[in-house]
Amino acid sequence: MGSEIAGSARRVLAITRNTVLEGVRNRAFLGMGIAAFGLIVTSIAISGLAVRGQTERVLIDFGLATISLLEVVIAITMGVILVYKEIDRKTFYLILPKPIRRSEVLFGKFLGLLTVLAVSLVFMTIGWVVSLMSRGVALPDGMPQALILAWAQAALITSVAIFFSTFTSPVLSGVFTFGVYMVGSSVTILQELLSAKKGMLAEPGPLRLIARGTAAIFPDMAVFNVGKEVILQIPITWEYVGACLLYCGFYCLMFQAAGALIFQRRDFS
Fold it and tell me: How many domains does the chain fold into?
């Protein structure tokens, strides 16, 4: 049993390492460096146009929002083509005859992409810090927590992208993944409308049932967005970060399991 687990871990790590190398060679990785440089220039330019006394707020808000969005874009872009490229290049036809499970391939690619996201986060954070220092703005207190949550959100989106890529084309995978992201970003609004005493979702009916089902099933992306708390200097506890990581882990596990089940039944002949 122990040797089987160790063997599985080695196979997953091998796939992870190959995925990281592939991601580094990808043009999207070069785009990260350009995005980091662009973040510096754009942040400085926008802060110069800010109302007097609002420079610090603009730099922090814009920088954190940009990093979070770019992480999601990278997750969707690379996640949806990860499996498709292997199939298109016929690489899977060389891997699958070997003693490796398809679920191990997916999990290894998922871990590899999480590593790429972490590296991209470091690049963009450096750009953000440079822009803050260039304007004499101190680093915000909740910066580490906010960056970890931005990575967690991108990790969740990655699992969604890989799930859709197991059974559909890159274009449709991207559309579906972006749709999950947009709906997830609106879950908080749906919950507020459902709890309101007046409005289209206040009365019992099909629309309310659909809204309740959507709010219950889709991940709430708002839990990862703490830009307002950082700006207002509201403490972001590590307990909250830990709870969000568990929340992210639950959805990642669910999407990975569903993707592995579909991928296992897929015919490549």
Answer: 1
